[in-house]
Write a structure and sequence with these properties.
The structure is a single chain. The protein is built from nine helices and no strands. The chain is an all-alpha fold. The chain folds into two domains: 147 residues, no CATH class; 75 residues, no CATH class. InterPro entries: DUF455. It holds the Pfam family DUF455.
C-alpha cells in the first residue's frame, strides 16, 4: 500500500529512522491526504511512467507511481502509448542531490539484526533496493511499453510461411532471449537464485519458470 511506500521513502532519506515512531506521529494517513498528482485524460501509460522516472523526491515518486497504477487498473488511463509521440527515456532516474550511491564495499554492514544498528542498516538497505525496483519497473514500461521494430517485424512474417514454421521461428527467438537473460543474470549476480518464488505472481506477469528456475542451479563451467 501507499503507506508502506511512505515509510520506505522516509527511511531512505533517514537511515537511522525510528520507523514505528514515524508512523505513529506522521500526519500522513492512507486515504486522508488528497493526491495532487493525477493523470490527464490524454496521457498514456508510457508518458505517465516518464513522470515517475523524472520525479526525484521519493515520497512523490512512490505516491505518483501508486496513483498511476491505480488509474491504469481502474481504466482511467486507457492508452499504453502514442505512436506519434517520440519518447526519450532517461539513462538514470531522477534522485535527490543528497542521495549518494556507493559501491558494495562502502555499504553499511548489515549484521544479523541482533542490534538496533543492524536492524536499521537492514531496513536502510531494503529501502534502497525497493527504490531501485520501483524505478526499474517504470523504466521497463517506458522503455519497452511501445511498439518497437522487433515487434513490428514479428507481425509481418511472410504470409507464405506456415503457421507451424512461424511458431518455430518465434520459439527460437524466445529461447535465445531467455538464454541471453540467464547469461546477464549470471554475469552480475553472484551464486544461484534462492527459492521459494511467488510463482503465481510471476506467471501472471508473464514470467514463467523457464526464466528463473535454471538460475537456481550453480552454473557448470565447461572447457
Amino acid at each position: 500500500s501507499a503507506v508502506h511506500f511512505d515509510i520506505l521513502a522516509y527511511t531512505w532519506q533517514n537511515p537511522l529512522a525510528d520507523i514505528p515512531r514515524f508512523y505513529e506521529n506522521s500526519n500522513w494517513r492512507e486515504g486522508n491526504e488528497e493526491r495532487e498528482m493525477s493523470c490527464s485524460n490524454g496521457e498514456t501509460l508510457v508518458e505517465a511512467a516518464l513522470r515517475v522516472l523524472h520525479t526525484d523526491d521519493p515520497f512523490e515518486k512512490a505516491r505518483l507511481g501508486d496513483d498511476i497504477a491505480n488509474k491504469w487498473l481502474q481504466g482511467h488511463i486507457i492508452r499504453p502509448y502514442d505512436d506519434s509521440v517520440d519518447i526519450a527515456v532517461p539513462d538514470r532516474p531522477s534522485r535527490l542531490s543528497n542521495v549518494k550511491v556507493v559501491s558494495p564495499s562502502e555499504m553499511l554492514k548489515l549484521g544479523k539484526a541482533g542490534s538496533l544498528q543492524s536492524r536499521q542498516a537492514i531496513v536502510h538497505g531494503l529501502v534502497h533496493t525497493e527504490s531501485w525496483a520501483i524505478d526499474l519497473s517504470w523504466d521497463i514500461i517506458a522503455r519497452f511499453g511501445q511498439k518497437n521494430g522487433d515487434e513490428a517485424a514479428c507481425g509481418s512474417l511472410d504470409s507464405n510461411v506456415s503457421e507451424f514454421q512461424q511458431g518455430e521461428i518465434v520459439k527460437e527467438i524466445f529461447d535465445k532471449v531467455i538464454q541471453k537473460f540467464h547469461t546477464i543474470v549470471r554475469s552480475y549476480f553472484r551464486g544461484p537464485l534462492k527459492p521459494p518464488f511467488n510463482e503465481t505472481a510471476r506467471r501472471a506477469a508473464g514470467f514463467g519458470p523457464q526464466w528463473y528456475e535454471p538460475l537456481t542451479v550453480k552454473e557448470i563451467m565447461t572447457d
